[in-house]
Each structure stands twice: as structure tokens, then as C-alpha cells.
Amino acid sequence: MSNPLLEVCHASRTFSTGVGPFSRDVFTAVDDVSLRLEPGRTLGVVGESGSGKSTLLRMILRLIRPTSGEILFEGRDIWTLSGRELLAVRRRMQAIFQDPASSFNPRQSIGAILAAPLEVHRVGTRAERARTVVETLELVGLSPSYVSRRPHQLSGGQRQRVAIARAIILRPSLIVADEPTSALDVSVQAQILALLQKTNRDLGLACVFVSHNLGVIRVIADDVAVMRRGKIVEAGTVEQVFEKPQDDYTRALIDAVPDPSRRRSAVLSSQPVAQE
Amino acid sequence: MSRSPYGTADPTLEIRDLSISFPTPRGAARVVDHVSLSIRPGEIVGVIGESGSGKTLTALAVLGMLPRGARIDSGRILLGGDSLLDKTERERRAIRGDRVAYIPQDALRSLNPTLRVGPQVGEPLTLHRSTSWAVAKRKAVELLAAVHLRDPARRAEEYPHQFSGGMQQRAMIAMGLCLEPQLLIADEPTTALDVTVQAQVLRLVREIRTEHRTAILFITHDLGVVADLCDRVYVMYSGAVVEEGPVDRIFERPSHPYTRGLLRATPAMHGPKEALIPIPGQVPLATERPKGCRFIDRCAFAIESCQRPPPWVEVEPDHKALCVRTDETGAAA
Predict the structure, then answer these.
(1) Measuring CA to CA, how many Å separate B107 from each of A243, B111, B303?
(2) Using one digit for the tens of pLDDT, what is the confidence trace for A79-98?
(3) Chain A within 8 Å of B105 (Cβ-Cβ)?
(4) Could you give the C-alpha distances from B297 to B13, B277, B281, B301, in angstroms and in order?
């Protein structure tokens, strides 16, 4: 087995729910979770609301400190890092969020939004940065003319393309995506999933992909972890978990998804593929 | 084969040739374009489409709740034979909540946060039947029990924020059922819910149909929900219905290229794991639709004659598509 890129070791996080600083009432959002992710693989995390998947994600991004346990990125506990070392880790770990409208500064142009990570990490000269921005836009299927547009002039799908561009522009090794297609229509969702698969493959990125949509996880992920009440109740490859779920909750979750494929016919397999 | 056992009854709702537009600086935007649909008693009819397809506005027109500025350009809406568009606002208000109930997507925003749930659920009785509050409250508890809330008497005394999302949606359904409407319009009622909770709400909708023979118009963007719940379906794209038919037939033989595209873009839970095939491009703006077929720019089947408005083609009994290429789309097996 190769070295994991990301390793979560017995991570827990509790939040105080009581009133006042001395209250002992706590809610355990993430409860002794361990997982590992190898370079280039995509891990899907599924769970219903309140299962702790977003808290887990924020701990991985070093936004919420675990109450106990460790988050190791390339073998080092990210919570022990600071200064230059931390900056280097941040550069290699990027995020995509659910709502692309609220994750951009509405007053900035797309060009400025995409150049910002390069500036923060002092990559290249001004001219080189401008070139990287245009190249990255092309990678996500947007023309260079988008550089001067602003977020509100873009559709939801286009905004999510910009979010992907911003995440990959520093050539990270890990992308953390929190419900990146939940706000999109199905036809656009399929476009964005295809784009993510392509960039992950071409750039060799590992990805933690959080979603409540099991169908989406089945398409995008290699491995899957099912969360419930802060714990991982089942983990394995997508094939194992979806074909032969071992846990009752996983099975209930899979059975609850209304599924058009049960009725889908062979007619569809014969369609010519439209060119974009 | 249709699953509806009520195939020959007169329709509860009939929409004929409905067109709605909004004025914009670039001319009128036709957001609902010659839409016709019908629902018979006890039938669950799905309207599926993506954002901007006009599905919600069609429903709001039935309710008489179109947003300010919307103009009805043509068409008729018949509820049990009564022409709704010819009625006064006062008459429509009497129909709303009584003969037609509406279940919105966001239940929490639709409930009054300052009132206990019980009185809200029973309120339609006091408004439409002049029932006393005491009786309405008793009825509300019965209704909450009917939508399978545990301990309904205690729940009726609680406030909406004390309910979970699924419970709030069930309270909305209870309120909708209060006066036993002929027609229930549900606009994406399960979109905000977790899948296991969604499954419970869908079961409840099926129960309502069986017990009350209510005609149900179910708006959704989720093909899975349509497959699970509906008897017939109308597929809407960019303001128009582009395919209609029994659910089994639409899934067996999707005939409009857009319907096929939607099916292939939806992640499947069973069968071989296939890559999703996106529909290229995006929905045209209502002011910038192509002259002929509105799907032409995104269609893999498009040919010369698609530059002209497409005809309705009957693919098989009760199953029609607005496309000249149905020989290709439906027949290829």
C-alpha cells in the first residue's frame, strides 16, 4: 500500500450546547472517525443532514480544530504546523463549496478571483499569473473572455467551473468538495461531475467529495464512507458498498433513493453523443 | 401501461394552451408557452423540468398566485369544469385552500413561526367553513395523526421551529388536506429533505391519492421521484411541454431528445456504473429562444427541418413528443 496523502486518525469533535462557560452539555458532531486517502483517489462521504460530514470536512481543511485525534496530510499533523509550513500545506489542499454565488467576492472580476491564490502564494510574475489564469479557464471549459466578467453575470454551472478553476490553479494534490453540485440542475450537474473527473484524472488529484446524493457519489468516487450520527458506519470501495452493503443503515439509505434506472431502457445506449 | 385506475373519468384539472409572459426591456419573455395538461381524479401527474422550465409558474397560474407583472396571454384553466381565469379574485380566494391545496418546497418558510402548529393546520376550516376554533383544533389533531405524526395532540401545541424538516412538510400536507381538496399541487415538496424522510413523504402522498382520490400535480426536477410516484408525466423545457405520457412508457421509450438527455445525465443507483452524459450548453433565455425547436442548439439529433417549429408526434397511444425525429429517438433499441 502506498503512503496515504491524507489520514484522519480517531478524530472527534464536540460542541458545547449548554448555556454558560461551565456547562458540561456537549454534542458530539464527529465521533472517533478514521479514514485514509491515497494520492489520486476520490473518497465520497455520504450522510444525511446532521451526520457530521461537513464538520469532518472542515477539520480536514483546518477550519475546525478536532477535540481529539489527528489529521495527517502527507504524514504531518496539520494542526501542529504554522507559518511557512502551514502555507505550503494550504497551497496543496483546496476547497470547492456548495454555493458558488456566496464563495466569490461579487465585486471582483473572474480574473482577479483566479489570480488571488497565485498572488497569496507569490507564484510567478504578473504576466505569468495572467497567463496561468487564462490557461486554467480553458481547462475548465470557459473562454478567456470570462476574465473580465463578474460572478453575477455567470450561470450556476459556470460559477462552479470558476470555483473548480480556483481550486486547481495552484496545482494542489487534494481537493475537498462540499456538495459542489447540489445547487445545480441535473444536466449541468452532469457537466460539472464530468469536468471534476477529468481534472482529477489529468492532474492526478485526490478528492474528498461530500454529498447527500448517493447516485452522484456512485459516479464520482472510488471509495465511499457512510456517516451517521458522527460515526462512519460503513466504508469500502464504491462497488462493495453499493452492491453489497453490510450495514443496515447503508442499505436503508440506498433503498430510499428513488431510482429511474430501474425503469431505464436500452434505447438510451444508442444515442450519438452531442458535441459541446 | 398506465397505473392510473381512473382512466376515463372527467379531468379534475385541465389546462388548455396556457401562455404566460413577463415584460422585459428586451421584449416580452414567454415563460410558459402554450402548455396543455390534464389530471383526472386519483391520478398523480408529474411535471418535470429544470430551473426556468416554467413548471412552477404553470402551477401558480392554477392557484391564481402569479407574481406581479406576469401576464396570461392565452389559455384556459378548468377546475372540475369551472373556468378559473374568468373568476374574480374574491371567487378565486374561495377556491384556494378549499378545492385546491398547495404544498410548497420550503415548509418552514410557509408556516407562521409565531403560531402553534395545531391552529395553523385547522385554520382553513375556520376560513372556508366558519368552523369554531375549538372544533378546528380537534380536527387539526386528527389531521396530524393522519399524516403519521407521533403524539399529534402534543405536537399540535408546539411551534414550527420545534418540528424537523420532514415533520414541517407533513404539517403542511395536513393543512392542505384539511378541506379534502379536489386538487393537490405539490411544488418540489421533498427537495429539501433527506432521502429517508423523502421516502416517507412520498408514501404519504400515495396514501392520499388512494384514500381521497385527490388529483395530484407533483412538480419536481428529480426523475427518480417521478419514476417512483407518478402515473403520468409532462416533461417541460424552456417554457413548453416537450413530451407527455405514462411514466412507464416515458422511461421505456423516451422520445424527446431532452427527455433522453435528462435520463442519461441522472446518476443511476443500479445496473452497470456508466459515466454520465451531460447535455451540452444551457437552457436558452426566454427572450432568445431559437425560432424552430427550442432544444435545437443542444440536440444530437437535430437536422435541417428542426429549424421550423416541431409538430406533436404520437409515439404510441397516450405518449406524445414535440419532435420530428421520434422515429430515430424512440425506435433505436
Answers:
(1) 35, 6, 45
(2) 999 899 999 999 999 999 98
(3) no
(4) 34, 16, 8, 10
CB contact under 8 A, B196 and A238: no
The pTM score is: 0.87
DSSP 8-state symbol, B11: P
Distance from C-alpha of B36 to C-alpha of B16, rounded to nearest angstrom: 4
Asked if the Cβ–Cβ distance from B278 to A253 is below 8 Å, we say no
CA B190 to chain centre: 12
Grid cell 472542515 in the structure block, residue: A58
Look at phi and psi of residue B34 and say left if phi exceeds 0, alpha if psi is from -120 to 50, else beta: left
CA neighbours closer than 13 Å in the CB half-sphere of residue B229: 34
d(CA A87, CA A66): 20
**Bridge partners of B216?**
B44, B184
ipTM for this model: 0.79
For residue B274, the chain A residue with the least C-alpha distance is A219
Does residue A274 carry a pLDDT above 70? no
Share of chain B above pLDDT 70, in %: 96
Q: What are residue B322's DSSP bridge partners?
A: B312
3-state secondary structure of B330: helix
The pLDDT, as a whole number, for residue B333 is: 36
Please indicate if any CB of chain A lies within 8 Å of the CB of B199.
yes
CA distance A17 to B155: 24
Residue A1 has pLDDT above 60, yes or no: no
Is pLDDT at A267 greater than 70 in this prediction?
Answer: no
pLDDT score of A33: 96
Helices A156-168/A126-139 angle, 10° precision:
130
What number of other Cβ atoms are within 10 A of residue A139's Cβ?
18
CB contact under 8 A, A274 and B300: yes
Q: Give the three-state DSSP class for B174.
A: helix
pLDDT above 50: residue A269: no
Q: Which residue of B has its CA nearest to A198?
A: B275
Looking at the DSSP bridge assignments, the partners of residue A71 are A8
pLDDT greater than 90 at residue B230: yes
- Which band of pLDDT confidence, cut at 50, 70 and 90, is reported for residue B330? low
With cell 467529495, the residue in question is A209
Given an 8 Å threshold on Cβ–Cβ distance, is B195 in contact with A185? no
Residue A163: per-residue pLDDT: 95
What's the one-letter identity of residue A254?
A: I
Residue B178 carries which DSSP code? T
